Amino acid sequence: MKKPTIIENTIKIPSSQEYLPDVDSFLEGILRGYGIEESLIADIAISVTEMVNNGIIHGNKSDINKEVAVSILYKNSVLEITIIDQGEGFNPNGIENPIDDRNLLREVGRGIFIVNSLMDDVRFDVQYSKGTRVILSKHL
Amino acid sequence: MKLSSSEKNGVAILEPKGKIMGGPDATILHDKLHEFIENGIRKVVIDMGQVEWMNSTGLGILISGLTTLRNNQGELKLANVTGKIQSLLTITKLITVFEAFDSVEDAVKSFKA
Fold first, then answer.
1. Which fold has domain B2-110?
2. Which of B17, B21, B67 to probe by mutation at the A interface, max A CB count within 10 Å?
3. How close, in Å, is residue B55 to chain A by CA atoms?
4. pLDDT above 60 (res B21)
5. Average pLDDT, whole number, for chain A?
6. How many Å lie between the alpha carbon of B97 and the closest alpha carbon of chain A?
7. How many CB atoms sit inside 10 A of residue A101's CB?
8. Which tens digit of pLDDT belongs to each residue from B83-95?
9. Average pLDDT score, chain B
10. Burial class (CB in 10 A: 0-12, 13-18, 19+), A122
11. What share of chain A is helix, strand, coil (3-state, %, to 5)?
12. Which terminus of chain B is more exposed, N or C, with fewer CB under 10 A?
């Protein structure tokens, strides 16, 4: 199994969910170093693993030769985490409302809704054929 | 995530520990739930007390177990739901879908009613 690549505050993983614990360990280690409280770390880890899952499954279509990169920046009390995949891009606005009664029993489709609830700002930069960049922000 | 299971009064009890974020750990929970169903077990309690957090993958597994059990005249109930999981269930309105109890014992007893 290929190993993740870590350079300073960035981790790059092949497109397999087997690497999610590596992303989580890397992320939580850095956030603890910043002195962020555990409950917030959990919210951020939930959000980042959601977006990495999206990058692996919907972006890179689980192509093991493509990578998902996660970069962490903490400046002026704002934490900014960028997740980049190498997929075809997708329309984040084309997702049904998961809390509509008709969708409550659906097994999928809650990820972006949860991230929007837990983070202060979520920006999508979709470049078709070049991948999707998602920037998650949290004021600390 | 680690997973242990037991049985009490005909009710299967699953106890996941750690984080449920997708990948192999999530598959273990999904497969165990469906193994119960295939073996004719229709009453399942998931003890959430040792789950640190889960993302939408974990919620999807709970929904999958619940709907499969209900389609087979069974039921899935939750016990010891912690603050972080409670908050996720509230955000996603799934709190209105699952029956949750303060203890495994209460959840097991509720099947008799």
1. Transcription Regulator spoIIAA (3.30.750)
2. B21
3. 5
4. yes
5. 94
6. 8
7. 9
8. 899 999 999 999 9
9. 93
10. middle
11. 40, 30, 35
12. C
| Structural domains present in chain A | 5-139 (3.30.565.10)
Q: What is the mean pLDDT of residues B7-20?
A: 93
Q: Is B18 on the interface with A (CB under 8 A)?
A: no
Asked whether A67 and A14 are in contact (CB, 8 A), the reply is yes
Neighbouring residues of A10: CB distance < 8 A, sequence distance ≥ 6: A69, A70, A71, A72
**Type of residue found at B65:** G
Predicted ipTM?
A: 0.91
By C-alpha distance, the chain A residue nearest B59 is: A107
Looking at chain B, which residue has its C-alpha nearest residue A117? B91
CA dihedral B23, B24, B30, B35 (to 10 degrees): 160
Give me the helix-helix angle, A38-54 and B56-71, nearest 10°.
Answer: 70
Tokens of A21: 């614990």
Q: Which residues contact B41 (CB under 8 A, 6 or more apart)?
A: B10, B12, B74
Contact B45, B77 (CB under 8 A): yes
How do beta strands A131-139 and B2-8 pair? unpaired
Q: Which residue of A16, A21, A104 is in closest CB contact with B94?
A: A104
Q: Taking CB atoms and an 8 Å cutoff, what residues of chain A touch B67?
A: 105, 107
